[in-house]
Amino acid sequence: MKIFIVSLLALILTPFFFAYFQNAKFEKKLKPALLAEIEGVIGAHGISDAVYTMDKLDVSISGIVEDKDGVSEVKQAIDSLGGGAVRVKASEYNVQVYGDVNVKKEGREIALSGNVGDPDGLLNSLNSSEFIGLNRVVAANSLNHDTVYRDSSLLRNTKLAEWSASYLKLKGDRGYRINARDNTLKAYGQVTAKIKDGILNAAEGMNITMDSSAFEIVDPTPTKLALSNAGGVSAISGNAPNDFKSDELFKSDVIEVKTDDFTELHPSIATPAFSKWVASYFGSKGARGMNIMHDEVTLTGPGTAMLEKQWLAELGNMGLKPVSGLELYSSEYHYPGYQSESKLDDTAQRMLLEAFALNQIFFDSGSSDVRVDQQEKIDALSAAISKAGDGVSFVIGGHADATGNAEFNRKLSKKRANSVVRALGAKGVSEQKFTVVSFGAAKAANTGGNESDRKVELRIK
Hints:
Elements: H1 2-44, E1 48-55, E2 58-64, H2 68-79, E3 87-88, E4 94-98, E5 101-106, E6 109-114, H3 122-126, H4 129-132, E7 136-139, E8 149-150, H5 160-169, E9 174-179, E10 184-191, H6 193-205, E11 209-217, E12 225-230, E13 233-238, H7 272-283, E14 288-293, E15 296-303, H8 305-317, E16 321-328, H9 346-358, E17 361-362, H10 375-388, E18 394-400, H11 406-425, E19 434-441, E20 455-460
Helix pairs in contact: 9-10
């Protein structure tokens, strides 16, 4: 009986003793070895945010790896833990790659890297000119997606592509990284304080958390191309495009490239069409210039209302934003420093100009007929012109006051000039001496109908 009881107890207690010794062996030898293996896999494969649990040989692991190939390698390493004896719980097996992406601009090229979890085709839009602006993608082979990747909701922001394009157009090397773990965007590169504020405001408008700690703040000096031509001396200063051809436009070139506000000059500035327009602009009479900042072109110097309208329209047709800083005159013959073609000695020229100034012909409102009370001035002009000799030619132009339609006044001004030419012709002056023009409204004319603005004047051509 005693033997039976001892045998029964041995039968009952043996599994417990076996389990005890097995557990002691596991805790003392197997568990430390398995933990070392698990930590070795985590360290060797760079798994971040790693979490694992152990229930004897049942193991569950989760964490993050940086690329798709890493996922496959981690899976194989986990499957071989403990020589393949470890049972990985499939329902909790959770090695993931987050939807991170890095967009980096160097020069005029863009490199994309990272991983994007997107079953709906976002990958195609990321690898497109719409996403990164006007620059071309040169490296995007590491952009992948897989079922184990977690989506970044930030990449689904419909306004992100528009923001990305405008940000990457800014001059200078720059970039940004989207982190799907905390759904933030970290931008980096050189910016001015003003540009930084604009970027942060744009991010706030998109409900994006922007990390701006990597920005390098620099002082702004606007990108500017200044062209001028005064007295036959021409110059360029500012940030000129490399392929901007100025040899035919300027006698001397002074190129000074400055630091800038990271805003490129507009592409149209470097085109043959713009060079041709510049040649025409500076070919017109008068000392003038222009200042260019990105796509805004400000014209300076003397001009007429008709030339202003023409120049602004031509620049607008090139896709530029023209701004008039012109000082408007009735005609090119009124520009400061106007040089006449006719050769006269200083005394003869001064006497002739004095005669013209004293004998301006005035008209009634709306009329082009020479009044009777202006006939003495016609006589005085005829005598002065005849005394100047045959080698002198003249410009004769009519003015109008500020009343009425502009086109009507332009035509009326020219009619008044022709009336004076005919009146001088009747006094024996050859009409071939005159170039008839419309000066339009007199410079700095008063508003309303003033006789002093309804006149005809002569200039030495």
